[in-house]
# Entry
Amino acid sequence: QVQLVESGGGLVQAGDSLRLSCAASGRTFSNYAMGWFRQAPGKERAFVAAISKSGRSTYYTDSVKGRFTISRDNAKNTVYLQMNSLQPEDTAVYYCAARSAYGSGTYYLNNYDYDSWGQGTQVTVSS
# Structure
């Protein structure tokens, strides 16, 4: 498994932006498809965005399309989540996840698809 450490969370106002980072170590990062999930209080952890191991393919949940961008830098072993136009409903603990991928364009959308998780970073958006 790969070890993951998220950073970049914080308290912001509605309309602001944040960039989350997830640093990976322990395995060859470029072999892993990556995902971002979030868990709001009282709710189950939910998919946010995914990216293939090559970075060429991405996918977003509908509620963040046009506002969030997932990207990766395989040379830095890091995946990012740029979050713009943040809204109070984006408040959650954000987790990055990894799994080894077979295809360069393959991404994964479900919690159970991933076998490595970070500890999470809190994002709070005030109205």
Notes: The longest strand covers residues 92-100. The two ends are 39 Å apart (CA to CA). The chain is about 0% helix and 50% strand. The CA atoms of residues 10 and 123 lie 5 Å apart.
